[in-house]
Amino acid sequence: MRYPRKVAIGFQEGTCPLHCPKCFAFSGKSGRKKKVHKMSLDKAKWLINEIAEWEQKPVIQPHIFTEPFANKDLSEIIRYCHEKDIFVSIITNGILIDDSWTQFILSELGRKDTISFSLDATKQETYEKVRGNYELSEIENRIQYLLEHRTDQGGPRLSVNYTLEKENFDETKAFIEKWKYKADAVRVTVAIDDNKKIPEMFRKKEIQNVSECSFLDEVMTIDSDGHVRVCQYDAFGDSDFGNVFEKGIMGIWEGDGMRQFRVRQKKGEMMQDDYCYQCEGACSTKLECREMGDFIIKEAAYTIYYNRRNI
Ligand code: SF4
Ligand code: SF4
Predict the structure, then answer these.
(1) Cys staple from 274: which of 3, 6, 270, 305, with CB 3.0 to 4.6 Å?
(2) How many CA atoms lie within 13 Å of 209's alpha carbon, on the beta-carbon side?
(3) What's the average model confidence in pLDDT over 251-262?
């Protein structure tokens, strides 16, 4: 049986202090805004229990479109995952990480857990353009504190993210240089636009009918109501492969609906109504690995990860 490498579960969706202009869920550009919806703790544990039975355990990303540290259940969910020998991968804007969360992160998470901070800027004025009206330096200081207070045993792997767009293009190099010897990893990726296209200014060449998206093979996305979405771009449930509370997680991952969808996507047979139709997000999912000095580089056409060695 082929298990997903990562399962993103919307334990609590729709709660984010930011409204990033690029955000599929909160920018409001599509005329829709993500609403708050929370999964009960019993249901959350029911899903974790199923995953705990798998021969190969994935990491759980405990959120989709939200700020994960807005979820008061997050600490209990993480502890429950750890009891079951499951690790977590969290992507955060960092705004809600206060002293109490900081202590929790340092004491409860280990190096098999990851926290990725989405910063997208080195300057405050740029941060306000691409993210929002919060103090970038406070978030940077919080990351620095976490980096300095980890021990050999305690504290997660820490990485920083830079989603590339027109407004922050000029700071990309400065961002990489600023963080590449501090954080465990730096990720730079081009944001696809509202039509799921690589923006014109970043296109390296004409992109032909994209197929074989690794997300479909490796990452499962379970919404707060239990419905399975095609991937994490689907902020409003426009795709639906069924409900895990009726069919089980693997029942859907290996079920006919997802299997046939993957085959059609690989053959380039997506129809206009399919969520993946003409999506260019797949260009950033097929990563190739190489070594470069102090780093292991993972790279695809529109994304690059600098992973520090020996961390
Ligand atoms: S921080 Fe993430 S979820 Fe929140 S508005 Fe920005 S892109 Fe959307
Ligand atoms: S092709 Fe696009 S929409 Fe479809 S799974 Fe990949 S990234 Fe998501």
Answers:
(1) 270
(2) 8
(3) 97
Q: Show the tokens assigned to 232.
A: 């994490």
Residue with tokens 């039509």: 195
SS3 89: strand
pLDDT in tens, 92-121: 999 999 999 999 999 999 999 999 999 999
Written as one letter, the residue type at 113 is D
Q: Which amino acid is at 180?
A: K
Residue having the nearest C-alpha atom to atom 5 of ligand 1: 19
Q: Among all ligands shown, which has an atom nearest to the Cα of 70?
A: 1
pTM higher than 0.85: yes
Name the residue at shortest CA distance from atom 8 of ligand 2.
231
Which two structure tokens, joined as six digits, stand for 66?
Answer: 């939200």
Among 211, 262, 279, 302, which is best to mutate for testing ligand 2, by the most ligand atoms less than 8 A from CB?
279
Ligand whose nearest atom lies closest to the CA of 229: 2
56 C-alpha to center of ligand 1: Å? Answer: 30
Measured in residues, the chain has a length of 311
Average pLDDT for 183-208: 89
